[in-house]
Design goal:
Elements: E1 4-9, H1 13-27, E2 33-35, H2 40-46, H3 52-60, E3 63-68, H4 83-94, E4 98-104, H5 117-120, E5 124-130, E6 142-145, E7 151-154, H6 161-177, E8 181-186, H7 192-208, E9 213-218, H8 219-228, E10 235-238, H9 240-253, E11 263-265, E12 272-274, H10 293-305, H11 310-325, H12 339-349
Parallel strand pairs: 1-2, 1-3, 3-12, 5-10, 8-9, 8-10
Antiparallel strand pairs: 4-5, 4-11, 6-7, 11-12
The chain binds 3-isopropylmalic acid and magnesium ion (MG).
Magnesium ion binds near residues 244 and 248.
Protein backbone atom coordinates (compact mmCIF):
# COMPACT_ATOMS: atom_id res chain seq x y z
CA UNK A 1 0.00 0.00 0.00
CA UNK A 2 1.29 3.44 -0.92
CA UNK A 3 1.53 5.75 2.07
CA UNK A 4 1.58 9.01 0.16
CA UNK A 5 0.38 9.61 -3.37
CA UNK A 6 1.75 12.87 -4.80
CA UNK A 7 -0.25 14.59 -7.53
CA UNK A 8 1.96 17.55 -8.52
CA UNK A 9 -0.48 18.84 -11.14
CA UNK A 10 0.14 22.07 -13.02
CA UNK A 11 1.84 25.46 -12.78
CA UNK A 12 3.77 25.78 -9.52
CA UNK A 13 2.34 22.42 -8.33
CA UNK A 14 5.39 20.35 -9.37
CA UNK A 15 7.79 22.87 -7.79
CA UNK A 16 6.09 22.91 -4.40
CA UNK A 17 5.44 19.15 -4.24
CA UNK A 18 9.14 18.55 -5.04
CA UNK A 19 9.90 20.28 -1.72
CA UNK A 20 7.34 18.07 0.04
CA UNK A 21 9.16 15.04 -1.31
CA UNK A 22 12.49 16.32 0.05
CA UNK A 23 10.95 16.94 3.46
CA UNK A 24 9.24 13.54 3.52
CA UNK A 25 12.43 11.74 2.51
CA UNK A 26 14.27 13.40 5.40
CA UNK A 27 11.58 13.30 8.08
CA UNK A 28 9.82 10.01 7.34
CA UNK A 29 12.13 7.99 5.06
CA UNK A 30 10.09 4.84 5.75
CA UNK A 31 6.97 6.21 4.03
CA UNK A 32 6.36 4.90 0.51
CA UNK A 33 5.70 7.65 -2.02
CA UNK A 34 4.16 7.36 -5.46
CA UNK A 35 3.64 10.13 -8.00
CA UNK A 36 1.10 10.51 -10.84
CA UNK A 37 0.12 13.07 -13.44
CA UNK A 38 -3.00 15.05 -12.56
CA UNK A 39 -5.01 17.99 -13.88
CA UNK A 40 -3.79 19.60 -17.09
CA UNK A 41 -0.67 17.43 -17.06
CA UNK A 42 -2.87 14.32 -17.05
CA UNK A 43 -5.12 15.76 -19.75
CA UNK A 44 -2.09 16.33 -21.98
CA UNK A 45 -0.73 12.83 -21.35
CA UNK A 46 -3.95 10.78 -21.18
CA UNK A 47 -6.81 12.95 -22.45
CA UNK A 48 -8.44 13.22 -19.00
CA UNK A 49 -7.56 15.36 -15.95
CA UNK A 50 -8.20 12.39 -13.63
CA UNK A 51 -7.83 8.88 -15.04
CA UNK A 52 -9.60 5.86 -13.52
CA UNK A 53 -6.19 4.46 -12.56
CA UNK A 54 -5.22 7.62 -10.69
CA UNK A 55 -8.54 7.74 -8.82
CA UNK A 56 -8.11 4.06 -7.89
CA UNK A 57 -4.55 4.78 -6.69
CA UNK A 58 -5.82 7.73 -4.64
CA UNK A 59 -8.46 5.62 -2.92
CA UNK A 60 -5.90 2.90 -2.21
CA UNK A 61 -3.27 5.25 -0.73
CA UNK A 62 -3.22 6.32 2.93
CA UNK A 63 -2.96 10.01 2.00
CA UNK A 64 -3.00 12.01 -1.22
CA UNK A 65 -1.18 15.32 -1.62
CA UNK A 66 -2.08 17.53 -4.56
CA UNK A 67 0.01 20.51 -5.72
CA UNK A 68 -2.22 22.73 -7.86
CA UNK A 69 -4.23 22.44 -11.06
CA UNK A 70 -5.14 24.59 -14.05
CA UNK A 71 -3.65 27.17 -16.34
CA UNK A 72 -4.45 29.31 -19.36
CA UNK A 73 -3.35 26.59 -21.81
CA UNK A 74 -6.45 24.53 -20.89
CA UNK A 75 -8.95 27.40 -20.97
CA UNK A 76 -10.40 26.19 -24.27
CA UNK A 77 -10.85 22.57 -23.15
CA UNK A 78 -14.43 21.27 -22.61
CA UNK A 79 -15.50 21.96 -19.02
CA UNK A 80 -15.69 18.31 -17.97
CA UNK A 81 -12.11 17.78 -19.17
CA UNK A 82 -10.64 20.88 -17.56
CA UNK A 83 -7.99 20.48 -14.84
CA UNK A 84 -10.43 21.87 -12.22
CA UNK A 85 -12.98 19.21 -13.19
CA UNK A 86 -10.33 16.62 -12.34
CA UNK A 87 -9.94 18.11 -8.88
CA UNK A 88 -13.69 18.12 -8.25
CA UNK A 89 -13.91 14.52 -9.49
CA UNK A 90 -11.05 13.55 -7.16
CA UNK A 91 -12.75 15.18 -4.14
CA UNK A 92 -16.07 13.52 -5.02
CA UNK A 93 -14.47 10.16 -5.85
CA UNK A 94 -12.55 10.09 -2.56
CA UNK A 95 -15.71 11.28 -0.73
CA UNK A 96 -13.71 13.83 1.24
CA UNK A 97 -16.64 15.97 2.35
CA UNK A 98 -14.99 17.99 5.15
CA UNK A 99 -12.27 20.42 4.15
CA UNK A 100 -10.23 21.71 7.07
CA UNK A 101 -8.60 25.01 6.19
CA UNK A 102 -6.65 26.50 9.08
CA UNK A 103 -5.87 30.21 8.97
CA UNK A 104 -2.97 30.46 11.32
CA UNK A 105 -0.73 33.47 11.66
CA UNK A 106 2.87 32.51 12.38
CA UNK A 107 4.32 35.06 14.82
CA UNK A 108 7.22 36.05 12.56
CA UNK A 109 4.75 36.84 9.77
CA UNK A 110 2.37 39.10 11.67
CA UNK A 111 3.76 42.09 9.77
CA UNK A 112 3.38 40.40 6.36
CA UNK A 113 -0.41 40.67 6.57
CA UNK A 114 -2.11 43.72 5.10
CA UNK A 115 -4.05 43.93 8.37
CA UNK A 116 -2.65 45.50 11.51
CA UNK A 117 -0.39 43.27 13.60
CA UNK A 118 -2.67 43.38 16.67
CA UNK A 119 -5.60 42.04 14.61
CA UNK A 120 -3.76 38.99 13.27
CA UNK A 121 -1.03 38.17 15.80
CA UNK A 122 -1.89 34.83 17.42
CA UNK A 123 -4.72 34.18 14.97
CA UNK A 124 -5.76 30.51 14.87
CA UNK A 125 -9.04 29.96 13.10
CA UNK A 126 -10.23 26.82 11.36
CA UNK A 127 -12.60 26.66 8.43
CA UNK A 128 -14.58 23.52 7.89
CA UNK A 129 -15.70 23.85 4.28
CA UNK A 130 -18.23 21.38 2.89
CA UNK A 131 -16.40 19.99 -0.15
CA UNK A 132 -18.44 17.47 -2.12
CA UNK A 133 -21.86 19.13 -2.41
CA UNK A 134 -23.57 22.45 -2.97
CA UNK A 135 -23.36 24.53 -6.10
CA UNK A 136 -20.09 22.87 -7.17
CA UNK A 137 -21.94 19.64 -7.89
CA UNK A 138 -25.69 20.48 -7.99
CA UNK A 139 -27.76 19.52 -11.01
CA UNK A 140 -29.06 20.86 -13.30
CA UNK A 141 -26.30 23.06 -14.60
CA UNK A 142 -26.09 24.32 -18.16
CA UNK A 143 -25.87 27.29 -20.48
CA UNK A 144 -28.65 27.46 -23.08
CA UNK A 145 -29.41 29.72 -26.01
CA UNK A 146 -32.51 31.84 -25.70
CA UNK A 147 -34.88 32.05 -28.67
CA UNK A 148 -34.76 35.86 -28.77
CA UNK A 149 -30.95 35.91 -28.59
CA UNK A 150 -28.65 35.87 -25.60
CA UNK A 151 -28.19 32.92 -23.29
CA UNK A 152 -29.30 31.62 -19.92
CA UNK A 153 -26.93 29.95 -17.43
CA UNK A 154 -28.06 27.81 -14.50
CA UNK A 155 -26.17 26.43 -11.49
CA UNK A 156 -27.92 24.62 -8.67
CA UNK A 157 -27.21 24.97 -4.97
CA UNK A 158 -28.43 21.83 -3.24
CA UNK A 159 -27.90 20.28 0.21
CA UNK A 160 -29.47 17.38 2.05
CA UNK A 161 -29.87 16.93 5.80
CA UNK A 162 -27.26 14.16 5.82
CA UNK A 163 -24.68 16.25 3.94
CA UNK A 164 -25.06 19.19 6.32
CA UNK A 165 -25.08 17.05 9.44
CA UNK A 166 -21.88 15.12 8.67
CA UNK A 167 -19.85 18.26 8.00
CA UNK A 168 -21.30 20.07 11.03
CA UNK A 169 -20.33 17.07 13.15
CA UNK A 170 -16.69 17.48 12.05
CA UNK A 171 -16.83 21.16 13.04
CA UNK A 172 -18.27 20.44 16.50
CA UNK A 173 -15.76 17.65 17.15
CA UNK A 174 -12.88 19.97 16.18
CA UNK A 175 -14.20 22.80 18.35
CA UNK A 176 -14.25 20.45 21.36
CA UNK A 177 -10.50 19.97 20.94
CA UNK A 178 -9.93 23.70 20.38
CA UNK A 179 -11.65 26.67 22.01
CA UNK A 180 -15.17 25.27 21.99
CA UNK A 181 -16.84 27.68 19.57
CA UNK A 182 -18.48 27.12 16.18
CA UNK A 183 -19.81 29.78 13.82
CA UNK A 184 -22.08 28.38 11.11
CA UNK A 185 -22.18 30.67 8.06
CA UNK A 186 -24.96 30.63 5.45
CA UNK A 187 -27.48 32.93 3.78
CA UNK A 188 -30.65 31.74 5.47
CA UNK A 189 -32.12 35.19 4.92
CA UNK A 190 -32.34 34.58 1.15
CA UNK A 191 -31.65 30.92 0.38
CA UNK A 192 -33.71 27.81 1.16
CA UNK A 193 -30.51 25.77 1.33
CA UNK A 194 -29.34 28.27 3.95
CA UNK A 195 -32.52 27.78 5.95
CA UNK A 196 -32.09 24.02 5.96
CA UNK A 197 -28.40 24.45 6.81
CA UNK A 198 -29.29 26.52 9.90
CA UNK A 199 -32.03 24.11 10.95
CA UNK A 200 -29.84 20.99 10.70
CA UNK A 201 -26.86 22.57 12.49
CA UNK A 202 -29.13 23.85 15.28
CA UNK A 203 -30.73 20.47 15.69
CA UNK A 204 -27.44 18.53 15.80
CA UNK A 205 -26.05 21.03 18.29
CA UNK A 206 -29.03 20.62 20.60
CA UNK A 207 -28.97 16.81 20.39
CA UNK A 208 -25.24 16.13 20.74
CA UNK A 209 -23.04 19.20 21.14
CA UNK A 210 -24.69 21.49 23.68
CA UNK A 211 -21.30 21.85 25.41
CA UNK A 212 -19.97 23.71 22.34
CA UNK A 213 -20.94 27.34 21.76
CA UNK A 214 -22.81 27.71 18.47
CA UNK A 215 -23.39 31.01 16.70
CA UNK A 216 -25.11 31.45 13.35
CA UNK A 217 -23.74 34.14 11.10
CA UNK A 218 -24.80 35.31 7.65
CA UNK A 219 -22.01 34.64 5.17
CA UNK A 220 -21.73 38.28 4.04
CA UNK A 221 -21.40 39.42 7.64
CA UNK A 222 -18.81 36.68 8.19
CA UNK A 223 -16.79 38.15 5.32
CA UNK A 224 -16.81 41.51 7.08
CA UNK A 225 -16.10 40.15 10.58
CA UNK A 226 -13.12 38.15 9.29
CA UNK A 227 -11.27 41.36 8.46
CA UNK A 228 -12.77 43.40 11.29
CA UNK A 229 -12.00 41.09 14.20
CA UNK A 230 -10.72 37.71 13.02
CA UNK A 231 -9.71 36.49 16.48
CA UNK A 232 -13.35 36.25 17.57
CA UNK A 233 -13.56 33.01 15.53
CA UNK A 234 -12.54 29.49 16.47
CA UNK A 235 -14.21 27.15 13.95
CA UNK A 236 -16.30 28.37 11.01
CA UNK A 237 -18.41 25.74 9.24
CA UNK A 238 -19.86 26.68 5.88
CA UNK A 239 -20.85 25.39 2.47
CA UNK A 240 -18.65 24.69 -0.52
CA UNK A 241 -18.88 28.07 -2.28
CA UNK A 242 -18.85 30.34 0.79
CA UNK A 243 -15.98 28.25 2.15
CA UNK A 244 -14.00 28.74 -1.04
CA UNK A 245 -14.40 32.50 -0.88
CA UNK A 246 -14.03 33.05 2.86
CA UNK A 247 -10.92 30.87 3.09
CA UNK A 248 -9.13 32.94 0.44
CA UNK A 249 -10.07 36.04 2.37
CA UNK A 250 -8.75 34.55 5.61
CA UNK A 251 -5.52 33.55 3.87
CA UNK A 252 -4.60 37.19 3.56
CA UNK A 253 -4.78 37.51 7.36
CA UNK A 254 -1.89 35.08 7.63
CA UNK A 255 0.44 37.02 5.37
CA UNK A 256 0.18 35.10 2.15
CA UNK A 257 -1.94 32.59 0.29
CA UNK A 258 1.36 30.77 -0.10
CA UNK A 259 1.20 29.78 3.58
CA UNK A 260 -2.14 27.98 3.79
CA UNK A 261 -2.53 24.20 3.79
CA UNK A 262 -5.73 22.19 3.85
CA UNK A 263 -6.93 18.70 4.67
CA UNK A 264 -10.01 17.13 3.11
CA UNK A 265 -11.35 14.26 5.15
CA UNK A 266 -14.05 11.67 4.60
CA UNK A 267 -15.28 8.78 6.66
CA UNK A 268 -13.01 7.47 9.43
CA UNK A 269 -10.22 5.30 8.06
CA UNK A 270 -10.54 6.58 4.49
CA UNK A 271 -7.57 8.41 2.91
CA UNK A 272 -7.45 12.19 3.23
CA UNK A 273 -6.72 14.63 0.40
CA UNK A 274 -4.21 17.36 1.24
CA UNK A 275 -3.87 20.50 -0.84
CA UNK A 276 -2.34 23.92 -0.48
CA UNK A 277 -5.15 26.47 -0.81
CA UNK A 278 -3.29 28.47 -3.45
CA UNK A 279 -3.76 27.82 -7.14
CA UNK A 280 -1.31 26.97 -9.91
CA UNK A 281 -0.06 30.59 -10.28
CA UNK A 282 0.80 30.31 -14.01
CA UNK A 283 2.39 33.77 -13.93
CA UNK A 284 5.28 32.58 -11.74
CA UNK A 285 5.35 28.87 -12.68
CA UNK A 286 8.71 27.33 -13.51
CA UNK A 287 10.71 30.22 -12.08
CA UNK A 288 11.39 28.92 -8.59
CA UNK A 289 9.50 31.81 -7.01
CA UNK A 290 6.64 29.90 -5.38
CA UNK A 291 6.38 29.53 -1.62
CA UNK A 292 6.42 25.78 -0.84
CA UNK A 293 5.24 26.22 2.76
CA UNK A 294 1.53 25.71 2.03
CA UNK A 295 2.39 22.37 0.42
CA UNK A 296 4.86 21.46 3.19
CA UNK A 297 2.25 22.33 5.83
CA UNK A 298 -0.29 20.23 3.90
CA UNK A 299 2.12 17.33 4.38
CA UNK A 300 2.23 18.24 8.08
CA UNK A 301 -1.57 17.88 8.15
CA UNK A 302 -1.30 14.53 6.33
CA UNK A 303 1.14 13.28 8.97
CA UNK A 304 -1.38 14.26 11.64
CA UNK A 305 -4.70 13.26 10.10
CA UNK A 306 -3.97 10.28 7.83
CA UNK A 307 -0.52 8.89 8.56
CA UNK A 308 -0.70 8.68 12.36
CA UNK A 309 2.65 10.43 12.82
CA UNK A 310 1.86 13.28 15.23
CA UNK A 311 5.41 13.52 16.58
CA UNK A 312 6.84 14.09 13.11
CA UNK A 313 4.03 16.55 12.37
CA UNK A 314 5.01 18.53 15.47
CA UNK A 315 8.66 18.50 14.40
CA UNK A 316 7.79 19.72 10.92
CA UNK A 317 5.55 22.48 12.22
CA UNK A 318 8.29 23.64 14.59
CA UNK A 319 10.84 23.58 11.75
CA UNK A 320 8.65 25.83 9.58
CA UNK A 321 8.12 28.21 12.50
CA UNK A 322 11.88 28.34 13.19
CA UNK A 323 12.75 28.87 9.53
CA UNK A 324 10.37 31.83 9.44
CA UNK A 325 11.72 33.18 12.72
CA UNK A 326 15.23 32.98 11.25
CA UNK A 327 14.04 35.22 8.42
CA UNK A 328 13.39 32.74 5.61
CA UNK A 329 11.06 34.51 3.15
CA UNK A 330 10.02 33.75 -0.40
CA UNK A 331 8.95 36.61 -2.63
CA UNK A 332 5.26 36.50 -1.60
CA UNK A 333 6.45 37.15 1.97
CA UNK A 334 8.61 40.07 0.93
CA UNK A 335 11.85 38.09 0.68
CA UNK A 336 13.98 36.68 -2.10
CA UNK A 337 14.41 32.95 -1.39
CA UNK A 338 13.65 30.55 -4.20
CA UNK A 339 11.26 27.63 -3.76
CA UNK A 340 14.16 25.22 -3.24
CA UNK A 341 15.95 27.58 -0.83
CA UNK A 342 12.81 27.75 1.32
CA UNK A 343 12.83 23.94 1.23
CA UNK A 344 16.51 24.08 2.34
CA UNK A 345 15.60 26.40 5.21
CA UNK A 346 12.98 23.95 6.52
CA UNK A 347 15.33 20.98 6.09
CA UNK A 348 18.05 22.85 7.97
CA UNK A 349 15.70 23.31 10.96
CA UNK A 350 14.67 19.65 10.80
C1 LIG B 1 -9.80 25.82 -3.91
C2 LIG B 1 -9.78 26.17 -5.37
C3 LIG B 1 -10.67 25.19 -6.14
C4 LIG B 1 -12.09 25.35 -5.61
C5 LIG B 1 -10.63 25.32 -7.67
C6 LIG B 1 -9.21 25.20 -8.21
C7 LIG B 1 -11.53 24.32 -8.34
O1 LIG B 1 -10.16 27.49 -5.55
O2 LIG B 1 -9.44 24.67 -3.57
O3 LIG B 1 -10.11 26.68 -3.09
O4 LIG B 1 -12.83 26.24 -6.06
O5 LIG B 1 -12.47 24.55 -4.75
MG1 LIG C 1 -10.40 28.60 -3.74
Amino acid sequence: MTDLLLLPGDGIGPEVTAQVRRVAERLTPDLSIEERAFGGASYDAHGAPLTDETLAAAKAARAVLMGAVGGPQWAGVARDKRPEAGLLALRAGMEVFANLRPALCFGPLADASSLKRELVEGLDLMFVRELTGGIYFGQPRFIEDLPGGGKRAVDTQVYTTAEIERVARVAFELARKRRGKVHSAEKSNVMDSGLLWREVVTDLHRREYADVTLEHILADNAAMQIVKNPKQFDVIVTDNLFGDILSDEAAQLTGSLGMLPSAALGAEGKPGLYEPIHGSAPDIAGQGLANPLAAILSFEMALRWSLARPAEADRLFAAVDKALAAGARTRDLGGSLTTAQMGDAVLAEL
